Structures are given as C-alpha cells and as structure tokens.
Amino acid sequence: MSLGSRFFAATYDSMIKNTEAAGLHAHREALLSRASGRVVEIGAGTGRNLGFYGEGVESLTVTEPNPHMARRLERRIGEHPRPVELVLAPAEELPFEDEQFDVAVSTLVLCGVEDQQRALGELRRVLKPGGELLFIEHVRSDEPGLSRWQDRLNGVNRFVARCDCNRSTVEAIRAAGFTITELEHGELQKVPPFVRPLAVGTARPSPDGHPAT
Fold first, then answer.
1. Which SS3 state, helix, strand or coil, does residue 171 take?
2. Which of 18, 42, 96, 111 has its CA 20 to 30 A from that of 9?
3. Which pLDDT tens digit goes with each residue over 175-213?
4. Does 117 map to a domain?
5. Does any domain span residue 213?
6. Residue 158 located in a structural domain
7. From CA 67, how far away is CA 201, in angstroms rounded?
8. Considering the domain boundaries, does residue 195 fall inside one?
9. Cα–Cα distances in angstroms (integers) from residue 8 to residues 39, 98, 110, 160, 202, in the given order
10. CB-based contact 35:105 (threshold 8 Å)
11. How far is CA 205 from CA 42, 46, 99, 107, 158, in A?
12. Nearest to 35 by CA among 84, 108, 104
C-alpha cells in the first residue's frame, strides 16, 4: 500500500466530519436501520456505519482492502457491542460463497473501486435471491454543465479523495443485473460542487440477471 493510502486512512474521519454533520450521518442512519439478517458491507473504511445496524441484523461481515483503514476499523469493532467479522479483501474479489447474504451495503465505495462492474457483480453473486443492496454514493450529475466540470476535475478528485466524482453509478447498478427499488437524489454538503450529486437507494438482484423495465 502506498503512502497515499496510509495518509487517506489517517485523515478520512476528519475530512468527512463536516459532511457527516450536514446530512450524511442522517442518510446512513435512515438507510442502514433497515438492514436485517446476514449483512455484508464492502469498503467499511474506519467503521462509520457500525452504529447504525439494528437488532434485526443476525450477523455482520465487513470488508476493507486498505490495511491502514482496517487497523482503525478493528479498533472501532472492538468498541462495538456485538460480534463483527472483518475480512481484508477488495470489493472485486469477495471471498464468500454464492447467495450467502440477505443484505449488502455500499456507502461511498463504488466511486473508488478499481473495477465498478466487477464489484457490483460480486455483490450480486453473494446476495441471496430476493436480497437487497443498500447504497449511498456520490455520482455523475444529470446537469450537463456540472457533469463536464466533473470530467475536468476528476483527476484532482482522484488525487485528493482517491475516488472518481463522475461515475454513473445508478446506471451501473442496473447494468449489473439489479432492479432499483427505491432512489432518492440529493446533495452532499460541505464538499465542492462537483462532488455533491448524491444517490441514496435500494436495489434487488433481478431474477433473470437483467433489470426490470
């Protein structure tokens, strides 16, 4: 892992603190309180989601590819009242059997994975039939002027935040064989305008591998 990965892990919580207070915390709480059964969360980072999982969760498995993040995540898991399994793995290579989980969670992760379609394919693979994907992701704007700025500034964003600001993630979720069941568009606060477009929603694996029309 690079020096940048170490620095990102060390500064992530402070970088996102104001954004959390300005609405992201509330989005996490509202969405993740719905999780139940066997749950897997990809890219769990420093563990900011842990406190939002309710009593309906039978087991919680979190994955994280960055070992520097994982060390911070381990400390937060140690403070959690219930058992949490931590697996050091990228979203593109989940070391789990097919159809193992009831719920999969991705919050501000699909913007930064190396191969978004492969990661989504893995999420679909490990979900049980009728399972549910819960997601909070900053996405490409539908407004042409802003989307052009996202393209221009994406290199800067990758350097600073280690993710892409111009990914059409909702469309990618559909293309990976999910049907979007709920979707709310909004904005992240306390961030530059080109990072603000936000999608919060739920999706289910389509029975035939193709999204419903």
1. helix
2. 96
3. 999 999 999 999 999 999 999 999 999 999 998 766 554
4. yes
5. no
6. yes
7. 29
8. yes
9. 26, 32, 17, 9, 28
10. yes
11. 17, 28, 11, 18, 30
12. 104
Q: What is the pLDDT of residues 52-95, one digit of tens each?
A: 999 999 999 999 999 999 999 999 999 999 999 999 999 999 99
d(Cα 130, Cα 63) in Å, to the nearest integer?
Answer: 22
pLDDT in tens, 148-177: 999 999 999 998 888 999 999 999 999 999
Calculate the dihedral angle through the C-alpha atoms of 106, 110, 115, 117, rounding to the nearest 10 degrees. 70
Q: What is the pLDDT of residue 8?
A: 87
Within the chain, what is the greatest distance between any pair of CA atoms?
47
SS3 157: helix
Structure tokens at 18: 């104001």
Tell me the per-residue pLDDT of 92-109, one tens digit each, with 9 for 90 and over.
999 999 999 999 999 999
The enclosing domain of 147 has a CATH number of 3.40.50.150
Mean pLDDT of the chain: 94
| Number of domains composing the chain | 1
Structural domain range at position 49 = 3-205
Tokens 């300005």 found at: 22
Indicate the Cα dihedral angle 66, 69, 73, 75, nearest 10°: 130
Count of C-beta atoms within a 10 Å radius of residue 54: 10
User: In terms of Cα–Cα distance, which of 70, 133, 77 is closest to 101?
Assistant: 133
Query: What is the C-alpha R_g of the chain?
Result: 16
pLDDT class of 2 with cuts at 50, 70, 90: low
